[in-house]
Amino acid sequence: MSQLDLAALQLDRSGKEPLADQLASAIEASIASGRLRIGDRLPTTREFASALGVNRGTIQAAYRQLGRRQLVEGRVGSGTVVRSTSPPADRIDLSSLLSRRVRGIGEESALTPAEPVVADFSRLTPDERYFPLEEFTRTLSAVWSGRRDLWQYAPPLGLHELRREIARRLSEHGVDRSAEEILVTSGAQQGLDLLLRTFTDPGDTVAMESPTYSGALALARFAGVEILGLPMGVEGPDPTPLLGRRVKLLYSMPERQNPTGITTPDPRREEILEAAVSAGALVVEDGYEEPESGRRPLAATKPERTIWLGTLSKDLVPGFRIGWLAGPAPIIERLARVKRTADFQTPLPLQAAVADFLKAGADRKARQKRAFEVEMRRLSAVRALKAHLPDVSWWGGEMGNPLFWLHLPSGISGRRVAETAAARGVGVAPGADFDPRGEDRPNLRLSVSRVDKRDVDRGIAVLADAVRGVAASAGIHGMPVV
Known about the structure:
A hairpin with a 3-residue loop joins strand 1 and strand 2. It is globular, with a radius of gyration of 24 Å. It is α/β, with parallel strands linked by helices and 482 residues long. The chain has three domains: 6-103, Winged helix-like DNA-binding domain superfamily/Winged helix DNA-binding domain (Arc Repressor Mutant, subunit A), CATH 1.10.10.10; 119-129 and 364-473, Aspartate Aminotransferase, domain 1 (Alpha-Beta Complex); 155-345, Aspartate Aminotransferase, domain 2 (3-Layer(aba) Sandwich). It is 40% helix and 14% strand.
């Protein structure tokens, strides 16, 4: 049996070190001190998660770390047991070989709702049930079998017909770019990585909305840049921190900002661009879904200073990994050069099939088919939030918007609420995931893009119980019991 004192384990939930790393270090210290001996069984992931009030994925990540250090092993019928009191002498010390940038990437995985899953509000991805799979499969088969030119390397910027179609789509929103001013990438994540690698060195300053997209934060941290936060409000990001600063890049999502769901009005967009000019920044406008507000994109107002970052992942199909960068030709040519150091091309047959798919308007038909269901889910969420969490306000959640950014009462840990809800089968994204400093904050992001409307009310009811439980454990009273 385990000699591990669960009550003595102290995890810093407000710190930057991932909980899995903290837990692995604590268990390793117990092994080194002799409190845990060879053959001792560690608690099951379920027992451990329940005792510490964390998600089972955190425990699993810690056990994986210890397994790689050859300190524990999984045995059929016995669970996870201690196999050694010290790492083997000839073991490679991986930690001494890792770069400082890699050491800054935490291992803790996203919070996965426990089985049975009640509702997973944590993911901002489209519901694949509304994608015209058969139609796209026919398109892909036709281009693959009928065009031998797709078996070769791609042009440096990507397939011309796809770039031409993207240019046409952008022009509908006032962003005038030729096909030669567009670079096809393997998703928006690669596009943003290329921008950081091309235009920043470690220590340079990059401005980002606070909170902002967690994937952009991960790339910025890996690049070793200083992140200048622009606080989000109901009118969008506050550009004031840019004044008097020199900044290399400004990353912004004017339309349905992730995670807050806020669409920035035109006057604030003008202020952001003016501040970017004064800071000498190149503006990166993340158009992760087609603009629907009718407001003028940043790239239409300041085309010489703005790079458009587009993708099909959030709005249509994540698995395609098709994204693009659109901007002035000298910038796009330089980005293409950098892209070729990592990969020669985004798969040509997929580019050709997507080009035909977009040309036929099949993506917009799929969105229209999905839009009604998303709106029904959104309305269900609004009713459920008002019923089960009447004292909690939110941003986003207006007509057609699947994102809700919840403002919990001060003093409540968003991370702790997310862990508690996940243990009960409900997935939500904690505010810490979107904070430039990685700090815990009393916020949660809910997305109804994939949750069946029949599960929305029950899921939010479970979430409300988690909020009240965490509030009570923090000594916060006054949360209503509904």
